[in-house]
Write a structure and sequence with these properties.
The chain is of the alpha/beta class and 587 residues long. It has 24 helices and 15 strands. The chain is globular and about 95 Å long. The chain starts with a helix and ends in a 14-residue tail after the last helix. It binds flavin mononucleotide and iron/sulfur cluster (SF4).
């Protein structure tokens, strides 16, 4: 026993000589725990010998005790405060969860405090103006300025390097025209639709009540009403806060069928029909996947499933609210389209479409084959990119799963052209849309309109602290905490939401004018240039070539033969009755 304790003392002595290295560990977090779990005498020796060797570590904590005694005679309230600090330090010393607190009682809390405010410190003092984290300071600034109706111009010149690989620019015309009418609307609804929707060219992307606070939902919806655009409900269904303001809604139906499910979580036609016919609901969107976590599903933890959220979603309060990774209502492309037709019928003929992030191109080709086979054509498709936002997603999914928006959009646009149905399906696109130029780029690649999520969050006051998954949003945007959301003034933020959308659409129309175009429908990839990885400027259309209309329909045609091999093989492998594993038996 004595030998063991002597070894312990020697070990701690050697630790004393490494004080510097140890100190850096406290701040960078990779410090190996020197305070191993030991009982009895070992623990006492650890506590007292170490403190005798390194009194400075404990001095702040130990100082609280005499300060408590002295201040007792001067001001008992302050004395209680010092006593409380002493007890905090004592608890730090005795607990075994955090090595830092155990070794640095009381003052170790500074490390946690600094870590807590690290994003804000970085953002305010260290962040580069153009560093995208994921949105640069300049991107956020333009949203804040447009939302507040402030001067959004830049003096002196661009901060961007036009020679960097990937740089994109619009070819202006020497016959630029004045900014054209901004009353432009996109008609969504094909021949099978009885109630087409005249949509704005920029809408609020899907974000649920649950991910967002009640006040954020209210402000977005009132903003949508003021600015005559639409708000996508997200998969959390239609909450009372969406209804209060009366702005246009796109009702998203996810795999949890929230707001239209039976007690077992299956789709309920009756419950769907009851809400879908509401005049405020303009379109129905089946969510197949979202760019930030395609194929993952999601869970709203029990703690966040309040009575209100439970009522909105049709689930039990206080229990985990699960969105499965796939739908239970269908499992094949044909099944998806039959669901589209069913929802169209149940909603009284409203436009019905689906949202997805592209994964294997074969699967989207399978949906195209199913359109041909069933003759059921969705009114719209929204293509989301892997760069899109989320309330919470596993890092592997956010970083590495799913196709980026431009590539996915181009694939969907071309596949629909290839089967001759491009004119019957309107395309929406989402993924880091901030400025009019971002919208213009998506339109050039085939989109008819765009959705934005996080830029509207900026308009609400989001400061990109990236704590949306913690329920501790500092701005009241993404939290269910009543006190925190009080900070979000609905009337003021609704005006900002409308103002941001209006100014962004205005900038889009100014860009169109500079290119000499009198309609957004005339924008094509050939109107843009981009710098490839070698630094050479190439037309955007060479990177994203447009497929000839009907090219996929005749395998004998020269147009089909001219397609890239990957598109031809994807088309050949695609099956209308099978999603995954849609490959020939020979493979
Ligand atoms: C807080 C938050 C919640 C979201 N919730 C949903 C959702 O319920 N359903 C959905 O399809 N997409 C959801 N999204 C994804 C967006 O609708 C959209 O697809 C994507 O974020 C677009 O990217 P952006 O944020 O870069 O505009 C959410 C995004 C955010 C930021
Ligand atoms: S302020 Fe932070 S937590 Fe709140 S919405 Fe923005 S990124 Fe999310």
């Amino acid at each position: 026993m004595i030998v063991m304790e002597v070894r312990l003392i020697r070990r701690h002595l050697s630790i004393g000589t490494n004080l510097l290295r140890e100190f850096s560990g406290y701040f960078f977090g990779d410090y190996p725990c020197i305070w191993e779990a030991q009982g009895g005498l070992g623990r006492l020796i650890n506590m007292f010998i170490l403190s005798a060797m390194l009194p400075s570590r404990y001095s702040a904590w130990l100082a609280t005790l005499p300060l408590a005694i002295v201040s007792y005679f001067l001001n008992p309230t302050i004395s209680i405060l010092f006593l409380a600090l002493f007890l905090v330090g004592l608890r730090d010393l005795l607990q075994s969860r955090h090595a830092i607190l155990r070794n640095y009682p009381l003052i170790g809390h500074l490390r946690f405090l600094l870590e807590y405010i690290r994003p804000e410190l970085r953002q305010y003092f260290l962040e580069d103006d153009e560093a995208p984290l994921p949105f640069s300071r300049n991107q956020r600034a333009v949203v804040y300025q447009r939302a507040k109706g402030q001067n959004d111009k830049r003096g002196f010149g661009s901060l961007l390097d036009p020679y960097r690989p990937g740089a994109i620019w619009l070819n202006h015309s020497n016959a630029a025209c004045a900014p054209i009418s901004e009353g432009f609307r996109v008609k969504i609804g094909n021949d099978a639709c009885l109630a087409p929707y005249e949509s704005s060219i920029l809408n609020v992307s899907a974000m649920s009540f649950g991910a967002l606070s009640a006040n954020a939902i209210r402000a977005l919806n009132r903003g949508a009403r003021l600015g005559d655009f639409a708000q996508d409900t997200g998969e959390g269904s239609i909450s009372p806060y969406h209804r209060e303001e009366g702005g246009d809604l796109i009702w998203e139906i996810g795999s949890g069928y929230f707001g239209c499910r039976d007690a077992d979580g299956n789709f309920s036609a009756e419950r769907f029909a009851a809400q879908a016919v509401d005049r405020q609901v303009k379109m129905i969107e089946i969510k197949l996947s979202q760019g930030a976590k395609p194929g993952h599903g999601g869970v709203l933890p029990a703690a966040k499933v309040s009575e209100e959220i439970a009522l909105t979603r049709g689930v039990e309060p206080g229990k985990d609210c699960v969105s499965p990774a796939r739908h239970s209502r269908f499992s094949t492309p044909v099944g998806l389209l039959e669901f589209v037709a069913e929802l169209r019928r149940l909603s009284g003929g409203k436009p019905v479409g689906f949202k997805l992030c592209i994964g294997d191109p074969i699967e989207f080709m399978g949906i195209c084959k199913a359109m041909i086979e069933t003759k059921i054509v969705p009114d719209f498709i929204v293509v989301d990119g892997t760069e899109g936002g989320t309330g919470a997603a596993p890092v592997e999914f956010a970083d590495h799963v799913g196709m980026p928006a431009r590539d996915g959009l181009s694939l969907v646009h071309n596949a629909l052209r290839g089967i001759g149905l491009r004119d019957s399906v309107k395309l929406g696109a989402a993924g880091k849309i901030v400025t009019g130029f971002d919208v213009a780029t998506m339109l050039a690649l085939g989109a008819d309109w765009c959705n934005a999520a996080r830029s509207f969050m900026f308009a609400l006051g989001c400061i990109q602290s990236r704590a949306c998954h913690t329920d501790e949003c500092p701005t009241g945007v993404a939290t269910q905490n009543a006190l925190r959301q009080r900070g979000l003034d609905v009337a003021d933020r609704a005006k900002r939401v409308a103002s941001f959308q209006r100014a962004t659409v205005h900038s889009l129309f100014e860009l169109l004018g500079s290119a000499g175009l009198d309609s957004p429908t005339k924008l094509r990839a050939r109107h843009f240039m981009m710098r490839d990885s070698t630094g050479q400027p190439v037309p955007l259309s060479s990177r994203y070539p447009e497929m000839e209309s009907g090219a996929l329909l005749d395998a004998e045609s020269p147009a089909y033969a001219a397609l890239p091999a990957i598109l031809r093989s994807s088309w050949e492998m695609a099956r209308a009755h099978q999603f995954s594993g849609a490959v020939p038996a020979s493979r």
